[in-house]
Structure prediction request, 220 residues.
Amino acid sequence: MPTSNNTASARTIAIGDIHGCADELEQLLQLIQPTADDTLVFLGDYIDRGPDSQRVINTVIGLQETCEVVTLVGNHEIMLLDAIEQPLMQSLWLQFGGQQTLDSYGGDFDSIPADHLTFLESCQRFHETEGHLFVHANYLPNSPLDQQDPQVLLWTHLSELQPTAHVSGKRVIVGHTPQKNGKILDYGHLVCLDTFCFGNGVLTGMDVHTDQLWQTKARN
Ligand SMILES: [Mn+2]
Prediction:
């Protein structure tokens, strides 16, 4: 048996910031129809701001039965985990869209199930393949991913820092900086897939080998 990633039909599909938009995520997965040969790389920020963070996490956890799933951590997941460990951080997170997340769980921290916390804690800071690097927000071009400043990886918008090509020569796929026109940002060496789903934008998935795009928008 060949390993799944070596089959001709195997796709690697990156998915941008979901921010609680469970309907858009479910519609996107309907379009993509992932199979056991595919790898989905989620770029982080599953939660906050949008209407149903709990359902988003359920959907992503459930996908692990269907295909390979790589889940990056975003700054919003970090804020939630910090809020649980440090009560002083709670008001910050709640102001950044955490209230909507807490509401989706019924209103209090104790209602967040253990498997969801395990999921959030398991999310990775980066993912690297033969041709691509995946991070939530940004990178410094001359550092390997395991030596990057977490602040840059998780928080720095592309409006603050537009990096040149990464020293590895690999194309970097990021989210985090919302593209309010609903179009991906493509610098060639750097692609941003956060297309402002929780606002009035769309949720984007991209096959990083063919650049095929899928986008969904919930009916208003
Ligand atoms: Mn973010």
Q: What stands out?
A: The radius of gyration is 17 Å. The helical segments are 22-32, 53-63, 75-85, 90-104, 114-122, 150-154. The CA atoms of residues 44 and 74 lie 4 Å apart.
